[in-house]
Amino acid sequence: MAIFESARHCIPTYLYSVSPKKSLILEEMASPPSANGAESKSFIVPAPSEPAKIEMFSPAFYAASAFGGGLSTGPTHTAVTPFDLVKCNMQIDPAKYKSISSGFGVLLKEQGVRGFFRGWVPTLLGYSAQGACKYGFYEFFKKYYSDIAGPEYAAKYKTLIYLAGSASAEVIADVALCPMEAVKVRVQTQPGFARGLSDGFPKFVKSEGALGLYKGLVPLWGRQIPYTMMKFASFETIVEMLYKHAIPTPKDQCSKTLQLGVSFAGGYVAGVFCALVSHPADNLVSFLNNAKGATVGDAVKNLGVWGLFTRGLPLRIVMIGTLTAAQWGLYDGFKVFVGLPTTGGIAPAAPAPAPAPTTSELAEA
Fold it and tell me: What stretches pass through the bilayer (predicted)?
């Protein structure tokens, strides 16, 4: 949990406050008692170390979800930049990057160790923005669509709620990601084009125009929307099944460590499914952002249908499985840190309504 403790200093201050005792001191310093002696009310959200202090589905809840999404997505994508580099080059130049092992060898020989992290800045910025939109808007749309459906239909068709909520969130998230993804692919697959974001971004705009940054948006939607729908719906389903069939203790009675372990395991399995459904579109995105003026037809003709589905797939399964597991672990770890419940699982049963008072009790009252 050390990573969450260090991240605490980066969290927007409106998400939490200091301990209750310190909060009281600060309130007394900031606002003197009223003339009639009544106590002044605090508008500060209590500290994240005290559970359940952020109201569910409040603006602070969605802000925390967005912050946790950015925190979990940007750094994890940056950490697997070497795998992403080899994968992208295998997709663009299979004659040179014939396999995973030889791909790493070619990259090391030509670019050195530093070459393994080429494009890490646009990766970090792009996927941090995407993760913030993806997780924050997913929580919003999941609640929004559940309210539209009503309690009965929301429970009955919960998988459809997950699919609709994640798809809606990803449409927005990809608009935030697309410019950085375009620059990242060009930097990673064209040695000598640019050192990174600072010189790569203006070169890309000069070459392709500002609208060129969004040339790959439709293929990106084609890759990311199915990916995210699978990521969230399968994760929610897998986690629910684990709590229902594999863990004898109800979720709300499990330790936080166990709950985070379930999130990590569910995330890895979900990541494998994500890689399978989104891989053809991933090949398209890499091809279009690498070749100036290229079209989807050019990509299909060059890669072939079989290559579209299989080129770079084993490496992407390993990369996306690990990536998705780490993201869910970090995201739910952050939620635990700020006092929110982990994602997914069987919700605790609603309390039974209080029995109606008897005639004698009403008479006594």
Answer: none
Domain count, the chain: 1
In degrees, rounded to 5, the angle at the alpha carbon of residue 51 between the alpha carbons of residues 48 and 52 is 105
CATH number at residue 162: 1.50.40.10
**Residue 302, token pair as written in the block:** 């060059």
The Cα–Cα gap between 27 and 40 comes to 8
Copy the structure tokens of residue 88: 């992208």
Q: Is residue 161 part of a domain?
A: yes
Domain extent, residue 137, equals: 52-342
Instruction: Extract the tokens encoding 332.
Output: 């739910």
For residue 268, give the nearest of 209, 329, 212, 194 by alpha carbon: 329
Q: What is the pLDDT of residues 207-256, one digit of tens each?
A: 889 999 998 899 899 888 988 999 999 999 999 999 999 998 889 899 99
Could you tell me where the DSSP H helices lie in the chain? 2-7, 20-30, 59-79, 81-92, 100-111, 120-156, 158-189, 197-208, 217-241, 256-290, 296-310, 313-337, 359-364
Q: Mind listing the pLDDT tens digit for each residue in 163-217?
A: 999 999 999 999 999 999 999 989 888 878 888 898 999 999 998 899 999 988 9
pTM score of the predicted model: 0.73
Closest CA to 122 of 198, 191, 173: 198
Q: How do residues 1-47 score in pLDDT, each as one tens digit?
A: 444 444 444 444 433 333 343 443 334 444 444 444 444 433 333 33
Q: Tell me how far apart the alpha carbons of residues 61 and 341 are, in angstroms, rounded to a whole number.
A: 11
Cβ count near 144 (within 10 Å)? 16
Q: Is 17 helix (H, G, I), strand (E, B) or coil?
A: coil
Structural domain includes residue 38 = no
Does residue 349 sit within a domain?
A: no
Tokens 């997914």 found at: 344
Closest listed residue to residue 244, CA positions, set 363, 317, 344, 146: 344
Q: Whole-angstrom Cα distance, residue 50 to residue 283?
A: 45
Tokens of 253: 């009675």
223: in domain: yes
Rounded distance between C-alpha atoms, residue 322 and residue 228, angstroms = 15
Predicted pLDDT at 361: 54
Beta-carbon contacts of 165 under 8 Å, excluding residues fewer than 6 positions away, are 138, 140, 141, 142, 144, 145, 232
d(CA 365, CA 361): 6
